[in-house]
Design a protein that fits this description.
The protein has eleven helices and two strands. It is an all-alpha fold and 287 residues long. The longest helix has 27 residues.
């Protein structure tokens, strides 16, 4: 049972990244590969500052700012230099690998001896339930804030930019500015996910972000399927559904491991699961 609770906590920690991908992909229709780099960036900054005896809460603004800068850079390359969003994200992600390695100083840093945000909570005797409670409260707070922003006039303008750029341009909205801000918000959420995961797993590794975008994409696709199935229109409920998709994704991987699948095959299982999520709705449409 504890194995699945751990998967549930990991799903909650990764939900912030899923919310970021939801903003970049579903609101702005931008396939942002910066995710792999900004996720690691959040974890790297967390590791460096925790080992420098920073308070875990005080690290959050730094992580958000770093992720936002990464997203802004991708947005500027895409909008100002007129480079395809996919290529812009790849370029920034590639550059971030060297930046992350320089900041971290080595390939991995253990965080067993530091005071993390999880170790500071003592609601229950068992640490796993403390971790679950904290991660749940943390992600629900993030979802509420993001949902509130998306329901403001500014948030509605962001959503309109992704839906109809020509209409928003006619209304005097700067689409390029909206995209840059949207990617900044998305990558700050992704970096926040790296912040949580690094502390939950008690280490940061320079390669921990490789392929993580597929996990976030799978979570968003599950959430999207549930949104269409239940005909959800409320933005707050859509965000909660994406969080549910992240949790379900991790539970499926946990079940895969529990039935004896070789851990070396986990990436293949992940890719196959995402492919299955993508093709099932298309097969139904074809029928």
């Amino acid at each position: 049972m504890e194995f699945y609770i751990t998967a549930l906590i990991l799903g909650l920690c990764l939900s912030s990244m899923a919310l970021g991908i939801f903003i970049s992909m579903k609101i702005f229709n931008i396939p942002d590969i910066t995710t792999d780099g900004s996720y690691t960036l959040g974890a790297v900054i967390t590791a460096v500052l925790l080992t420098a005896h920073w308070n875990a809460i005080a690290i959050i603004p730094v992580v958000l700012a770093a992720g936002a800068l990464a997203g802004m850079l991708t947005g500027i390359i895409h909008t100002r230099l007129k480079i395809e969003a996919l290529l812009a994200g790849i370029l920034v992600m590639t550059g971030l690998y060297s930046i992350n390695l320089t900041i971290l100083g080595r390939s991995n840093v253990p965080l067993l001896e530091v005071q993390s945000v999880f170790s500071s909570v003592h609601f229950f005797a068992a640490s796993v339930y403390n971790n679950l409670t904290l991660s749940l409260l943390f992600i629900l707070s993030i979802a509420f804030i993001v949902g509130y922003v998306l329901r403001t006039d500014f948030g509605i303008a962001m959503r309109a930019t992704g839906s109809s750029a020509s209409m928003t341009r006619a209304l005097g909205i700067n689409n390029n500015k909206m995209k840059i801000i949207g990617l900044a918000i998305a990558n700050s959420l992704t970096a926040l996910s790296g912040y949580l995961v690094a502390q939950f797993q008690n280490f940061t590794d320079i390669n921990m972000g490789i392929g993580i975008v597929i996990t976030g994409l799978g979570s968003v696709l599950i959430g999207e399927a549930l949104i269409k199935w239940w005909s959800i229109t409320s933005i707050h409920w859509q965000l909660l559904t994406v969080i549910g998709g992240s949790i379900l994704f991790q539970l499926v991987l946990a079940f895969t491991l529990s039935i004896g699948v070789d851990p070396n095959m986990l990436k293949l299982v992940t890719a196959s699961f995402v492919l299955l999520i993508v093709i099932i709705p298309r097969l139904k449409k074809h029928d």
